[in-house]
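Lab meeting minutes (informal)
Scribe: AK
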Amino acid sequence: MEVIKNGNGKTVCRADASNKIVEIVQRGFKTVIQFMEDGTMKVINSEAI
């Protein structure tokens, strides 16, 4: 996964273009967004470890 940073150099998310996944970790929670082949999105929320 590639780390995506904002203008201040702080990590915003991690992205994997080949698997069409974006992972966001914020305030102890992790959100994974997967872009499906049929144009829909699958969103998984969990507590970050």
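Next up, CB showed the second protein from the same session:
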Amino acid sequence: MDESETTKPTTTTTAASNPNSRADEPPNAPKPRVALGPGPGPAMSSVSSPLAARAGHELPFVQPSSYLRPSSRSHTIPPVATPMSPIDEEQMQGLQGMRDFLRVRTSYDVLPLSFRLIILDNDLLIKKSLNILIQNGIVSAPLWDSHQSKFAGILTATDYINLIQYYCQFPEHIDNLDKFPLSSLREIEKAIGVLPIETVSVHPSRPLYEACSRMLKTRARRIPLVDIDNETGRETVVSVITQYRILKFIAVNTEQYTSLLKKTVREIGLGTYTDLRTGSMTQSVLDIINMMVTSNISAVPIVDKNNVVLNVFEAIDVIPIIKTGVVEELQINVGEALSKRGEDFGGIFTCQEDDRLDSIFITLRQSRVHRLVVIDDNWHLKGVISLSDILKYVLFYGDDGDYFPSS
């Protein structure tokens, strides 16, 4: 609006000259114009619009507040970002350094100098596969489709839990369980309505960041490295890396960054603290297995009547229990089942909500950790931190980009 428009004269009525004005109205506010009766010219409306032109004036009345209302074409000014505290800056610096490390290192770099790899053919009977895992002291193995010469997934303790569920739902098929090959796991999963076996894989020369993203997207706890021969186009399973091995690799090689993670578990909201599933020492293994399947979890904290943590029943604890047969061992209680653990069992790892993330990485660097049970000073159960929780925080916290990049 130019200056000639703003200096047009207008006539106003002050509160002092108008005995009918209200005390709570601004003195210059336009008053309703009431029609008094017939007169020359068109009849006036009972209440005039604030923008309607008044007789004798070229421009309408304008209230001062109308200048303060934002125009529909105006742009909203973005809020000013609150500066980060020094501890937040250090935390983000540490996370960014770890992410840059994961983007320049490959999955192949995680492998130790020497290792063994056991691959099971899809035509192998499920019962024989269990014996192979027990004899070799392993809890998982890649599967191979010899008919198509390609990677066919990975066998884990969860598959044996699914087999137990299948027996519970279809007891009439118990006599056929010894005849099921590994390839029938797909049909078993469909029959009991659970997620299929993990078939996600990654090329060993791809960035480690990509392997981590795929694992988190598919909720896989391990991922096979599958290479492809350039001449024949056939696949070759190189090895399998787990979330634990990846986090240990990070902890060992990026201590300058993990030492910057000074915020506590409570401050970053790490872990699960609601809807926790727990069990007791006197419950049957079958009850715990049913709980794990229905809740889609891989471990159940074992507590007493006061919610004090006594132990943790994990999916891999099923393997030594059923080695002599699926049916006979399912009704034993949890306490007896946990006593069957091997001598190499690493123990239960705990932490408190006031523990810092850098201390957790020290634990990962020094011990074989699969999860952390969060307790208070009196060992009452507060929550559970999985390796997936830690890996997800490292990769994605504060990142607005694509969490799960395509291959």
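CB comment: The chain has a mean pLDDT of 82.
No objections, moving on.
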